[in-house]
Amino acid sequence: MDVAFIIETIAKIVVILLVFSALAGLGTYFERKVLAFMQRRLGPMHVGPFGLLQVAADGIKLFTKEDIIPQNVVKPIFKIAPVITAATAFMASAAIPFWPQFTAFGYTVHPIVADINVGILYVLGVMAIGLYGPLLGGMASANKWSLISAARSAAVFISYEVITGLSLLAPLMMVGSLSLVDINNYQVGGITHWIVWSQPVAFVLFWIAAFAETGRTPFHLVANDHEIIDGFGTEYSGMRWGLFFIGEYANMFFISFVIAIIFLGGFGDGTIAGAFQLLLKVAFFFFFFLWTRAAWPDVRPDQLMWLCWKVLMPIAVLNIVVTGIVMMF
Amino acid sequence: MNHEEPFTNRNVSESSTYYYVDIETYPVSGWDKFKQVFRRAIRGELFVGLWVVMREMIKFDIHTLQYPLEKLPIGPRYRAVHKLLRLWESGYERCIGCGLCEKICISDCIRMDTRIDENSRKEVTEYSINLGRCIFCGYCAEVCPELAIVHGGRYENASEQRAHFVIKDDMLTPLDLLKAGEQAEYPGFGAIIPGSDASVKKTPLAY
Questions:
Q1: Neighbouring residues of B140: CB distance < 8 A, sequence distance ≥ 6
Q2: End-to-end Cα separation, chain B, in angstroms
Q3: For residue B38, is it within any domain?
Q4: What is the 3-state secondary structure (H, E, C) of A65-127?
């Protein structure tokens, strides 16, 4: 392993960390603006032009706030839990190709930290470890709301891991590789070659599961403000709470990348146009997360479990069986 | 007074405009629940919701009022912090110190002190309203025979001291503003009829 490779990898990691931390902040700005427009409000307006610097103001507020550790919490676990959420979100991004490879100053750059051959398995696995953030944070908080939230998050995340795994199995059987780059190259022939046309059921199932994995609105019961305050985040303050937030928004961006790459052709043949198409697709999926938040109500935990085990999982299994039969003959 | 009741039949349940909404029976078995979910999923209600919020976003019909920069007009009868007015011609205070407002105030928050000055006119030396107790009912403005105490439109009464609004000097129209014609006549609650300027005279009255 030569020095150039190590330096390049570290540079990529730093870039991804910086870009997606900033995007997480901007994501909150867009969320507030989009929700406001959909509800005929203006959203943040006073800090900077069109409220753009609201992100900076929020960042300063979070960084300078007192870091309160309540009295009866389990201190080491309480302190480490937000780090787990943020860290796993960013670790999952290591196997995601954000951009096709390009050549700059005679040096070929692969905008993926590690093109491992179990890419999507790694992404889903590390995202699943992100469960320990809400779970441990909620259980260590010495707060009943946090405890309820921890129980819900454990139930929801573990259940919907089943859906993500099973729904992805069918497209992966067709592609024959777990690497996200290979999956992208499988659909290189243009819009008709996208996996969404051959696997529409898997696409919808994975999309639904993505809402549960990121805890977004139809399935926002992990931190439902009107039931359990902020759930696992109730006792947190300052930047520890901010880390939960960064993790959640980074997760939204990464899962949007994953959906776009697996089902919607990713960056296509790797031209600049294809690369920008990938960003457009990701932007659409991110926007859809905000869109549903404005439009849809939340479901109850038991409804969510019911949907997972009695509707989505049988459909996913059927989808795999049908795909297998079709591939066999 | 021959006031006619707009509704002759006030028992709304008997009128035909109200009807019972059909409520589906709740699903009992698992199969019924599945059918209900399937029906609702197929009917596309979720997409109706998506379309509605998207339509509002595209129409961009924003209803936000950016408050410190923009303000809604308030009605002339709005009862905010009180004002003491002056006579237009002479600039004297309209208040004759009769004490009716002090008497009628139901939350007992008006205090006044008067003396007979060198011209044998009754002069109001102290006049204060405890805004912490005032309920802005408007009785003081209604009872005032001289239209001296009225309700102004100043509803932004945040201050370091509650007393900042209610000393006599704060409520009384300053003389320079009066000369500039800035004193607005009060059109609400107990106000004089238009054209009655002639009857508002410098105290003591001529009769």
A1: B82, B101, B104, B105, B110, B149
A2: 34
A3: no
A4: CCCCCCCCCCHHHHHHHHHHHHHHHHHHHHHCCCCCCEEECCEEECCCCCCCCCHHHHHHHHH
Tokens linked to B64: 């936000």
Give Cα separations from B115 to B85, B123, B126, B174 (angstroms).
19, 5, 10, 22
Instruction: Decide: helix, strand or coil at residue B154.
Output: coil
- Residues 178-217 on A with a CB inside 8 Å of B are none
- Chain A contact for B68 (CB, 8 A cutoff): no
Q: Tell whether B58 is covered by a domain.
A: no
Helix/strand/coil for B123: strand
- Print pLDDT tens along chain B (207 aa): 455 555 566 666 666 667 788 887 888 888 888 888 788 777 888 888 889 999 988 988 888 888 888 888 887 778 888 888 888 777 778 888 888 988 999 988 888 888 888 888 888 888 888 887 888 888 888 888 888 888 877 888 777 776 666 677 777 777 777 777 777 777 666 666 666 666 666 555 555
Rounded CA gap, B39 and B43, in Å?
A: 6
ipTM topping 0.90 = no
Question: How long a stretch of residues is chain A?
Answer: 329
Q: Cβ–Cβ of A34/B54 closer than 8 Å? A: no
Quote the tokens at residue A144: 């009943």
Which residues in chain B touch residue A39, judged by CB atoms under 8 angstroms apart?
A: 53, 56
CA atoms of A97 and A87, how far apart (whole Å): 18
CA nearest to A292, candidates B201, B49, B88, B200: B49
Q: How far apart are CA A94 and CA A108, in angstroms?
A: 18
Q: How many domains in chain B?
A: 1
Domain definitions of chain A by residue range: 70-328
Strand partners, A109: A102
Cα-based distances in Å from B89 to A133, B68, B202: 76, 36, 8
Of the candidates A294, A298, A295, which has an alpha carbon nearest to the alpha carbon of residue A43?
A294
Chain A residue closest in CA terms to B54: A38
Q: Using alpha carbons only, how large is chain B's radius of gyration in Å?
A: 29
Residue A207 main-chain phi, psi, to 5 deg: -65, -45
| B184 in a structural domain | yes
* B144: containing domain: 82-190
CATH of the domain at B174: 3.30.70.3270
Is B6 within the bounds of a domain? Answer: no
The answer to whether residues A90 and A243 touch, using CB atoms and an 8 Å cutoff, is no
Beta carbons of A37 and B60 less than 8 Å apart: yes
Give the number of A-B residue pairs with CB atoms closer than 8 Å: 42
CA distances in angstroms from A114 to A3, A5, A97, listed in the order given: 16, 11, 9
Three-state SS letters, A168-193: HHHHHHHHCCCCHHHHHHHCCCCHHH
* Beta-carbon-side half-sphere exposure of residue B75 (alpha carbons within 13 Å): 5
